[in-house]
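[job 0417] fold request received: Molybdenum cofactor biosynthesis protein B
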Amino acid sequence: MQNREENSLSIAVLTVSDTRTEDTDTSGQYLTEVLRAAGHRLWEKKIVPDDIYRLRAEVSRWIAEEAVQVVLTTGGTGFSGRDSTPEALAPLFDKHVEGFGELFRSISYDEIGSSTIQSRALAGLANNTLICAVPGSTGACRTAWENILSRQLDASFKPCNFVAHLLPRT
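[job 0417] inference complete; emitting structure tokens
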């Protein structure tokens, strides 16, 4: 097993919402708490409105930042009016992590039944940065973290994880 420092990643958290503030952003707060508890470093946490171009600009800035290895977004993955996280992020991906959304919806089905079909959770790699977009509810963030992200962001998880793909760029 690797030590905690070797397993530590630099992670940015972005909440996509027209209504949440730092005081009401329980999903973003949850993600920052669990990533720190797992020994990772919070690079930055922000809230941006449901606007495809502002969302894309913020995530692009983090992708270009050499120190950021993971971007976790919460919100904007549904079908409501301004939900545009998938449309904003997918064009940025060098490679799509095809199974992420499917796995999230499969796990989520046991919790919320067929309502999971309305989740457009997705993930991809861009410039050696993993970007994962999950729904905006704290429960959905917990489902993603406990069942997918905590393991895939852990270098000791076998047979494979994303850490080797996120090594610092030289």
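[job 0417] notes: The beta strands are 10-16, 41-48, 70-74, 95-96, 122-126, 129-134. The chain has a mean pLDDT of 92.
[job 0417] exit 0
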